[in-house]
Design goal:
With 495 residues, this protein is α/β, with parallel strands linked by helices. The chain has helices at 29-33, 53-63, 84-97, 121-133, 151-156, 171-186, 215-225, 259-275, 288-298, 321-328, 342-348, 430-433, 453-457, and strands spanning 8-16, 36-39, 66-75, 104-109, 138-143, 159-162, 192-199, 230-236, 249-256, 302-306, 333-340, 355-360, 372-382, 386-387, 397-398, 403-408, 413-420, 444-447, 464-467. The chain has two domains: 8-280, 3-Layer(aba) Sandwich (Rossmann fold); 288-475, no CATH class. The relative contact order is 0.13. Bound molecules: zinc ion.
Length: 495
Amino acid sequence: MINNKKLYKVAVGGFYLESNSFVGGETTLDDFKNQTFAEGSAISRNSAGSASEFAGAWDVLTQANCELIPTLIAYSSPRPPMTKEALDMITETILTAIPTDIDGVYLMLHGSAWAHHEDDPEGVLLTKIRQKIGPNKFIAISLDLHAYFTEQMLKAVDIVSAYKTCPHLDLYETGARSAEILVQALRGEVKPKTVMAIAPMITPPEHHDHNRAPFKTLMDATRKTQSGKVLIASLLATQPWLNVPELAWKAIITVDGDVEYGQKQAQELIDQAWVLRKEFLSVTAKPVAIAFEEALAMGTPTVIADMGDATNGGSLGDSTEVLRVALASKSSGSVAVSITEPSAVITSQSSIGQRVQLTLGSGEPGSYNERVLVYAKVIATANKKISYTHPAALDVVDDPGLSVLIEVEHPTIKIYIVLHSQPVRVIDPVIYELFDLKVNEIGVLQGKSHVSFIPGFARITPRYVLADTLGPTAANLPSLPFTKRMKPLYPFEDI
Ligand SMILES: [Zn+2]
């Protein structure tokens, strides 16, 4: 018998931002609108990217004959804290679009949005949704494993699914899993409850790599935990650059009914992370000058990962540290770096083919974005969006704004700089390809993340060096001004 009647009404949407508390500036509504922003009927399966959690959930829900009520997709690359206006608009739009006769809600969240006036934007949103739809409807979410998951979020949701890979490659599966359990719950096949266990630790992301111990050990354990009554097991390593009170590693278990069993499983999982905490602090990154020379010698091309200026962790992309090391080097070769520098873009945009003098960076001597004077030839300008080729951000669009390619004068090294107006992720080579730079022929390419750049640059090179640079995403966490964190917290207190 063919029955075309939709079985369940499910509201779907996404609010995706990883903030960094330690950078200046704010993420505005326009920043979202310049990236990925769609409301209501303008939302489709691929609105957040064809390999996204949202696409995964969309497929599962439509195959289960659910009627989807699209609310809002507001997706940003990692950015500074968001404005109150942006947060209020996003919260209200999602809330208003959810009808009261809904059967369930699925939201794709990063889990680490932050605003100066609000430590827990997702917690507030989920609490308001719960208040609107009542206690008996299901709320399912998906998260990045670097989410800041709070008690408030825990109280509001039924189903939680987070990535089990880093670099993050299982976005689609993560959204699909959350939606699968939602469908099972709607059918009355399971009674999902979510529980949490906490370890008072935060760690820099360098070792959050599922291909290598210690993180591999933990991700394998998480997968093993997810069986039988444990419908979904997630281990949140959290992102460490948020100045918030509940920041810590967490194990989150969505269990079928048996809360006590789920709690025991969560505790066992987080205990394994706690035992390995010291291994996450063994930084293998090199001082930047050494890292740069090594990268030059390793073969063309090699990525130098600028950890302190990881736009993938919310830095502004305005560091001059790698550039300054290249300027001081006496070796030969070629390098391409990317710098967010709107004022230099304006100064140089109309000087194509000419020699210009530019001041890059605005910081004091010794800071990550220390001011530096360069003489350069302006090669080209561009004003178009980029579309990431990274496997986990495939087709995701970002906006560098007006951009200029310059070649800096140096006796032995060809130094190319892509100057752009807005921060972009440098987890794959697309910012360099914006200008048709032949990335395969450049000796050293600056990447801006701790781990994610590895699969993103893999299409051109497997070689990389980690540079232990300064900045808002530094691996050295005690170097940052945390004021709200829990105490004790490893590694601040050696517990
Ligand atoms: Zn992440």
